Amino acid sequence: MDDDVSVNLPEQLQMIERETKRLGFSMPSDRQTGSLLSTLVTAKPAGKFLEIGTGTGLSTSWLLSGMDGKSSLTSIEIDDKYQWVARQFFEQDKRFQLVAGDAGEWLRNNQSMKFDLIFADAMSGKYMDFHVAWNMVAPGGFYIGDDMLPQDNWPENHQPRVDDLLGFFETSHDCQYTRLAWSTGLIVAVKT
Ligand SMILES: C[S@@+](CC[C@H](N)C(=O)[O-])C[C@H]1O[C@@H](n2cnc3c(N)ncnc32)[C@H](O)[C@@H]1O
Questions:
Q1: Res. 2 pLDDT band, cuts 50 70 90
Q2: Is the CB of 78 under 6 A from ligand 1?
Q3: Residue 79 belongs to a domain with what CATH number?
Q4: Is 66 in the pocket of ligand 1 (CB under 6 A)?
Q5: Contact 58 CB / ligand 1 (< 6 Å)
Q6: 3-state secondary structure of 145
Q7: Which of 1, 87, 107, 180 has the most crowded Cβ, counting Cβ within 10 A?
Q8: Cα–Cα distance, 127 to 2 (Å, whole number)
Q9: Which residue(s) pair with 124 in the sheet?
Q10: Neighbours of 187 (CB within 10 A)
Q11: Which residues pair with 72 in a beta bridge?
Q12: Is residue 33 part of a domain?
C-alpha cells in the first residue's frame, strides 16, 4: 500500500488546483487531507459540516464530493480573492453556504449551531478560539485539524501553539483522538 490518492478525485479538483497555482495561493490543502475528509463526511449521512478557511475551495471540493444530498456544508473565509474561486465552482450547490468574514467572530456568534464534522484550517478555530469551535462539535462528531507536523510555511514561534492544541486533546475528558502522520500531520478528534 502507498499514499496515492489520485483515484476518485472530486470533479472540480484539478481545475481548482490550476486556479490555485495561478493565484499563487501558498497554503493549499493537499489531496491526502481531502481524501480523508471526503471519507469521514460519507460516514455522516444528512450531516452538518463546517470548514474554517475555505481558501480557493480545494478541501471544499473533497467535502462536497463525499457528502450525500441531505448534508450541508458551511465554509468561512476572510479573503475574498481566494474564496471567489470556490464561489465560481460551488455556488450552485444547494448544500453549500459560503461565509465571507472573520471565522472567530462567526464562531462566537453561532454557538448554538452544532456540526458533525469541523475542518479547522485557519488560525481561528484551531489556535485562536479553539474552545469556541470545539463547543460546536456535536456528540459523535469529528474535529479535524491539519498542519500538526512542522511545515515550511509555519509562522515564527508556531510550535507552542501546536503543542497547546495537542495538549488539550491529551487532557480532555470529552474526546477520543488520534494523531496521524498523514498529509501535513492531522489530528482526528471525536466529541464523546
Ligand atoms: C490553510 S488555508 C486554507 C486552505 C483550504 N482549506 C484549502 O483547501 O486549500 C487558511 C485560510 O484561512 C483564511 N483565514 C485566515 N484567517 C482567517 C479568519 N480569521 N477567518 C476566516 N478565514 C481566515 C486564509 O485567508 C486562508 O485562505
A1: confident
A2: yes
A3: 3.40.50.150
A4: no
A5: yes
A6: strand
A7: 107
A8: 31
A9: 128
A10: 22
A11: 48
A12: yes
